[in-house]
Amino acid sequence: MSVKATARITAVPDGRGATALPVLESEGPLALRRTRSPEPGYARVTVVGAMSAPLGGDRLAIEARAEDGALLAVDSAAATVALPGAGPDAGRASYALRLGAGEGAELRWLPEQLISACGSALDQTTRVELATTARLVLREEQILGRHGEDTGSLTTRLTVHRAGRPLLDQQLAYGPGAPGGWDGAAVLGGNRAVGQLLLVDPVLETASLVSRVLGPTAVLTPLAGPGVLVTALAADARLLRCLLDEVLEELLHGLRAARGA
Fold this sequence. Notes:
Layout: E1 4-13, E2 19-25, E3 30-35, E4 43-49, E5 59-66, E6 71-76, E7 80-82, E8 93-101, E9 106-110, E10 114-116, E11 121-130, E12 135-144, E13 153-162, E14 165-174, E15 193-200, E16 212-213, E17 218-222, E18 227-234, H1 237-260
C-alpha cells in the first residue's frame, strides 16, 4: 500500500533574538524533531525517517518556511533511500519539497543524500520561494545506486523564485527511462554521486563572482541574480560531501566578510 504524507515546518522570530517553531507537524514516515542548533538565533529541525520510504507509489512532501526575520536550519538524521514498490504496478514515487523564506529570513536546507536504489522510480521536486531580502543555503546530493548495484530511475527538478521572479530552474534525469547519454563521458563520466550547492544572498547582487572550475569534476556558476550555484560530481558520497563542504565554508566565509564590510 502506498503512503501519502506531508510534514510541515514554520519558523518565526520569538522576540528575544531566537527563532520559534509554532508549526512542527510530522506525518507518516516523515518525523520532525527540534534539535540543538550550533549557531545562536537559529531554530534547527532534523528529519527522522520513521519507516522505509519513499517506496513505489508513495507521495511524500515537506513544507518548510522561515517567516520574516526567522533563521531556520533543516537537516536529516540519515540518507533517504528510494526503494522499489511492493509490486510491479506500484508506479513512481514522488517527493515534493516546498520551501520559503520571508524578508530578512534565512533558510538552510542541508539534508543527507538521496540514494536511488536499483529498481526504484522517484520524481523529486524542490520549489523555493524567496522574498527580496531572504537568504538561502541549499544542498542536494543524489547517489545513483547503493554499493555494487545499478541506479534506479530518478528525476529531480529544482526551481527557485525570488521576489516572484525566476532565479533558477533545472531538471536532471538518471537511470532507466532517462534520455540517452546520461551516464556517458560527457555527463557523469563514470561517477555515481551528483551534488548541487545553491546560495542566494542579497550581498551577492554586488559581488564580482566569475565562473570557475573547482577541481576536475565541479564548477561554480554565478546566477543572473544574487545567487551562486555549485555543481559537482564524485565517485562516491564521501568524496562528494567533502568537496561540497569545502566550497560551502569558503562561500559562507566570503558572505560573512561582505556583510561586515
